[in-house]
Amino acid sequence: MTTWLNMSLQDGASPIMEQLVFFHDHVLMIMLMITTTVSYMMITLIRNKQTSRFMLEGQMIETTWTIAPAIILVFIAMPSLRLLYLMDEVHNPALTLKAVGHQWYWSYEYSDFTKLEFDSYMIPQEEQQESTFRLLDTDNRIVLPMNSPIRMIVTAADVLHSWTIPSLGVKTDATPGRLNQVSFSINRPGILYGQCSEICGANHSFMPITIESVPAKHFINWASKMSE
Questions:
Q1: Where are the transmembrane segments (predicted)?
Q2: Which residues contact 145 (CB under 8 A, 6 or more apart)?
């Protein structure tokens, strides 16, 4: 999860998020190069007092500043399109989880198990413990196996919501009457936090998302107990 004065992205907990962080750094370096070059040229032009009455055209420089931006855009577009393809692809999911947004809580259904569904509410401030985070912890956490492809189906029962986990690189709108699908894989154990990212009413800030990533064996034991 993010911390105070954190100026960078959260540590990636999925392969997609790690690739998104790499892509962010890649584009940032290109922007730094462009900013440095343009700033140098502007400062040089401002300080240069030389003029020429015979300079009417410069075909070489015009060709250069036309082709160079096109090449830079190719270096940005290729990894971007690759990432878009990887984020949309669903690879034989091992588990399907359905999330339904309500005002103002989430309901979850494990489609591969019978009778495994629950509501997830934010823990009120007066009931919090020292180990919980204000406005982020829930009474019922989502438990998911690590290193397993997960298919997430997101919808809403009333108004627009958005199911978002920044450390997974996942943000999917929950629209009434529509099923949106996203896939991800968690590559490390731990607790991941997120929040609804679509303004959905007065208590929009109070419907957090908490995922507990565990080994597959622990997940099976948990699912067996919850299904009894």
A1: 27-46, 67-87
A2: 94, 95, 186, 213, 214, 215, 216, 219
Q: Structure tokens of 56?
A: 């009417």
As given in the structure block, the two tokens for residue 212 are 């507990």
